[in-house]
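Quarterly update from the structural biology core.
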Amino acid sequence: MAGSSARTMTPVRSEKLPAHHRLTASADFAALRAEGVAFRGALCLLVTLARPGEPTRVGFVASKRGVGGAVERNRARRRLREIVRRRFTRVPETGWLLMFVAHRAAPTVAHQDLATDVERVMTAAGVLAPLPAVIEPPAGLAR
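Predicted structure, tokenized:
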């Protein structure tokens, strides 16, 4: 490549949910079904199980019977995963297994309605820290 200089890309931190925070083992899903505590929302169900000392892991379920065909199931899981990913900094680093189960309306309802429902069930379960308070500058210092 004559005339072009080698450029290095600045490393960009991935926004994906880290692998160690993803719930993938069928034994964990089975434990959640057997021993977990359910928190019902209008658009999703959150099942939690305390696991002290383990990293918090989260999984997403959208059944054919509960949500519909493959396109609807994938859309429901994608939407739930994105909503939870954006709030994951407010979830404890360790101590929980979380399973979100999508309801039939999850793929089509307005994003804000689904996000509000997810926040409501996470708060009810005690796994979502409140947002930090925004401090307003004194009136004389505002630009």
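The two ends are 50 Å apart (CA to CA).
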